[in-house]
């Protein structure tokens, strides 16, 4: 054994340096493993071995990273602290946790080999949930090697165990959501969406709750992700939804539901009738059925692109020819310079799964119209897909339709959770444009416009009242936006229709005023009279429920003006791009206590349920293939937990 004054590194406390022939080896005192001990090899490999050495159980892991050799003494410093720091300053290790509750068990730390196995298992399960990883990854050889080298003390878990951990996380997170709903100051709107799985064409119903919390923040929570069979009848579909709502105990808190355009009216009616029987819905369910605005735009865009099917095929082939060789591309660029094309847009083939990419391809091609004609004259043999002049004209007109749909879709999905007030002016603009497009003298264009307008009017019939009420609750617009758009849309009938909307607003306001804390004094007085009268019981009080409403309404008429009157009489708030309607109502809640309750419920309606990343998709949403083969209960747990944990991290 060689002893040398040069062996100053602390790793030599655990190694013997032995000369064998012309070389030196370092022998671990714990496991007797032999490693290079030459002076040129350094000590990093020895430190790494000590961290992984199974036999070395009484030595800390962290000291081999933080200890430093002192030049004048042989003593070791675990952590060096600047002498200018105050004596009472300490270094702390911050453990980032997903769970808020305190975990009292030991954690890995400086100078300790301890490990919280349970917490690490939950961290692993959360990672799988958050990132759509397969449960079977815990049994992959590469993963096992990685974990073993990273932390030898961690006991690897089986696929079944990590699935059980995911289910436990789901149960805990679900309880948190229950508690949130229980304390909500307002109502909840629920969106319904259908997902599919590519492997077996299975269908899933996804339900999500949308609401405005006590801090006036618009929130979304996934509720369910359940399997639905293609053989289900409309009764069975509605029963599945009702069971989910009652499982969450939110049927009595429901304000509206948002469906896609393909959902049967009969399914919606069955759900509405069930809820109306218990008098849970406002305005007799008039605002209950909401249809997705982005879904409407996608359907109208599909109609437009369908009429351009042959034109689109020719454009694709022409672009493929231009891109077929560098020489052809160079010729195309030269011709573009000759005819002085101003556009700098790039010609590229579209992605058929994203309709906006088809629009961009067609729009770019239309701006190179003259260049394509010149290329045809120069190379008539290969350029055989050139459009005729009428086809170019139709292409330009239809792409103007698509341009509007793209712009409005981007407005609707600019925010992750858009409030309902932003939709009315955009939808009204589309309504006006459709009216104009239907007047086009080209029968090709007018027939397309009529087809789109029919879809639009089905949507407008169901949703116009809710959109108008939401616009009224924007202090920048109030009733003025209706007074601006309705005469353009309806002419002489506008006044009557505006009055109908205002009656809906007043009815909704009166219903909110009954449950407002301001009405409590009247209700308490009636309760006192009832409880103080001989023989009065629960039935007597129930018979006077209508009297409560009458007394409240008549007392308002005789007294001061209501929240609604004050709000509408005051000047409009100046329009600016940074306006936040929820912040405005948060600040003005004390001034309009009843109307703010109404605003909380109306502005929380999800007029669109489409996520920003899928707003232009031509197909529906698909389940991650890593999870599609799992049991339905596990799929639901993973999908819902993922949404809840991500929301917690974002907040």
UniProtKB/TrEMBL annotation:
Q: Where is the BED-type domain?
A: 6-59
Q: Which SMART domains does this UniProt record tie to the protein?
A: ZnF_BED
Q: Where in the cell is it found?
A: Nucleus
Where it mainly occurs, coarsely classed, is nucleus
- Tell me yes or no: is Zinc-finger among this UniProt entry's keywords: yes
User: What molecular functions are annotated in GO for this chain?
Assistant: DNA binding; protein dimerization activity; zinc ion binding
- Chain segments annotated as transmembrane: none
Question: What does the UniProt keyword field contain?
Answer: DNA-binding, Metal-binding, Nucleus, Transcription, Transcription regulation, Zinc, Zinc-finger
GO terms for biological process, alphabetical: post-embryonic development
On subunit structure and binding partners, the annotation says: Homodimer.
**Protein name, per record:** BED-type domain-containing protein
Q: Which organism is it from?
A: Gossypium raimondii (Peruvian cotton)
């Amino acid at each position: 054994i060689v002893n040398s004054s040069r062996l100053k590194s602390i790793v030599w406390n655990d190694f013997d340096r032995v000369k064998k022939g012309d070389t030196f080896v370092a022998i671990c005192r714990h496991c007797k493993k032999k490693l290079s001990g030459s002076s040129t090899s350094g000590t990093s490999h020895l430190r790494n071995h000590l961290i992984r050495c199974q036999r070395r159980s009484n030595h800390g892991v962290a000291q081999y990273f933080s200890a430093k050799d002192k030049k004048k003494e042989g003593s070791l410093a675990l952590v060096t602290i600047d002498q200018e720091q105050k004596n009472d300053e300490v270094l702390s290790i911050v453990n980032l946790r997903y769970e808020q509750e305190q975990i009292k068990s030991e954690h890995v730390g400086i100078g300790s080999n301890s490990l919280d196995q349970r917490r690490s298992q939950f961290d692993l399960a959360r990672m799988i949930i958050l990132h759509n990883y397969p449960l079977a990854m815990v049994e992959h050889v590469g993963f096992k090697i990685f974990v073993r080298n990273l932390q030898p003390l961690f006991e690897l878990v089986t696929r079944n165990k990590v699935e059980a951990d995911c289910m436990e996380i789901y149960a805990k997170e679900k309880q948190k959501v229950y508690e949130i709903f229980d304390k909500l100051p307002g109502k909840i709107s629920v969106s319904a969406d259908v997902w599919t799985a590519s492997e077996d064409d299975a269908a899933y119903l996804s339900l999500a709750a949308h609401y405005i919390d006590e801090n006036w923040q618009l929130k979304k929570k996934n509720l369910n992700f359940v399997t639905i069979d293609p053989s289900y009848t409309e009764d069975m579909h509605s029963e599945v939804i009702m069971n989910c709502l009652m499982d969450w105990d939110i049927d009595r808190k429901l304000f509206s539901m948002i469906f896609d355009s393909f959902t049967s009216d009969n399914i919606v009616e069955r759900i509405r009738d069930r809820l109306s029987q218990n008098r849970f819905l406002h305005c007799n369910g008039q605002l209950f059925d909401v249809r997705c605005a982005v879904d409407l735009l996608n359907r109208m865009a599909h109609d437009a692109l369908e009429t351009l099917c042959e034109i689109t095929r020719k454009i694709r082939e022409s672009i493929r020819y231009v891109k077929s060789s560098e020489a052809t591309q160079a010729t195309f660029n030269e011709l573009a310079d000759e005819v002085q094309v101003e556009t700098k847009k790039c010609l590229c083939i579209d992605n058929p799964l994203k309709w906006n990419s088809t629009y961009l391809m067609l729009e770019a091609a239309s701006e190179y119209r003259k260049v394509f004609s010149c290329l045809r004259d120069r190379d008539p043999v290969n350029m055989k897909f050139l459009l005729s002049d009428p086809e170019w004209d139709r292409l330009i007109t239809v792409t103007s339709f698509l341009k509007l749909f793209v712009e409005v879709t981007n407005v609707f999905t600019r925010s992750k959770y858009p409030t309902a007030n932003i939709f009315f002016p955009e939808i009204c603009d589309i309504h006006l444009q459709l009216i104009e497009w239907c007047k086009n003298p080209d029968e090709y264009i007018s027939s397309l416009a009529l087809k789109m307008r029919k879809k639009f009017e089905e949507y407008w019939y169901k949703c116009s009242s809710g959109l108008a009420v939401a616009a009224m609750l924007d202090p920048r617009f109030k009733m003025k936006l209706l007074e601006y758009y309705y005469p353009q849309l309806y002419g002489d009938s506008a006044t009557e229709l505006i009055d109908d909307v205002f009656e809906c607003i007043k009815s909704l306001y009166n219903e909110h005023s009954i449950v407002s804390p301001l009405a409590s004094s009247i209700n308490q007085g009636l309760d006192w009279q009832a409880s103080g009268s001989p023989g009065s019981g629960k039935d007597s009080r129930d018979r006077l429920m209508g009297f409560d409403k009458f007394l409240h309404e008549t007392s308002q008429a005789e007294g001061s003006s209501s929240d609604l009157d004050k709000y509408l009489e005051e000047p409009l708030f100046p329009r600016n791009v940074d306006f936040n309607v929820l912040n405005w109502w948060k600040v003005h809640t004390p001034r309009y206590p009843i109307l703010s309750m109404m605003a909380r419920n109306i502005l929380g309606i999800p007029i669109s349920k489409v996520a920003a990343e899928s707003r232009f998709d031509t197909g529906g949403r698909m389940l991650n293939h890593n999870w599609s083969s799992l049991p339905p209960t596990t799929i639901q747990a993973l999908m819902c937990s993922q949404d809840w944990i991500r929301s917690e991290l974002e907040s």
